[in-house]
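Hi Y.,

Following your request, here is the sequence exactly as I used it, all 305 residues.
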Amino acid sequence: MGILSVREVVKDFSGHRALNNVSMDVPRTSIYGLLGPNGAGKTTLLRIINQITAPDAGTIIFEGHPIGRDDTALIGYLPEERGLYKKMKVGEQALYLAQLKGLSKHDAMQRLKPWFEKFEMGSWWGKKVEELSKGMAQKVQFVTTVIHEPTLLIFDEPFSGFDPINVNLLKQEILEMRKNGATIIFSTHNMASVEELCDHITLINEAETLLQGEINDIREKYRTSKYRVVFTGDPDRLSRGLQKQFTLEGLEKNGTGQQATITIREGAKSDDLIRNLLEITEIKAFYEVLPSMNDIFIQAVTEHE
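Below is the corresponding structure, written out as tokens. Let me know if you'd prefer a different format.
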């Protein structure tokens, strides 16, 4: 059984429907991407899961029972709009937030120390939050989100404000937490991160679910029968020698030779293309071009409009 089940959730704000019968099941110890354009309803759903607001209809099941206030102790939530106290010192604030999550001061100190060392934050302990850069403050809030080691972590645009080095650092920590038994839901506009991290996704647009499932299954569904071949020889011979069931999409040079992108028409197979290519050129590499999550995102949203 999954750790979280969202069932036909509806939410209205002043006549505007933010969520319309949205459902999703989050498998245990998975990394689950919640995707969608701005205003799609993602943050509203995350706030409902975190008991910040209530749905107008539908249910949220957490660990086999309807979610309640007591369950928030088992959830770590990093909202897109960060919320640190700017005048408070970093160390005092980290201790305060850790204790709000149920840790004793002693346990909070024991857990904070390795995190501050890992993120090179030791010298920030006595600084006020307002003295930190946006990226530095993001690190502090990330640590205070995960410090109580919750079973469910929810990150809303977690990589916003970070440089590539720190984005990679956070990705590694997210993968490590999943390895240690945590389940992660994260909302992001970065489709490369989705491909790199997520096992499953739900794509919401205009309050409704457009696309849902395992990443590999979704990419398989949207495959375009497009292949890339790296070859040696005369590119004109390749273009002239392709049979009618294959369409040459483009030719270009790369570091290892000529490269062509070819689409297979309905009724033909990749084996047929390989046989055709072997008759007219020398193949150095051959692989299918699966659509990126960015391409799938754009196509799904565009088709819905």
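The chain is about 35% helix and 30% strand.

Thanks again,
Q.
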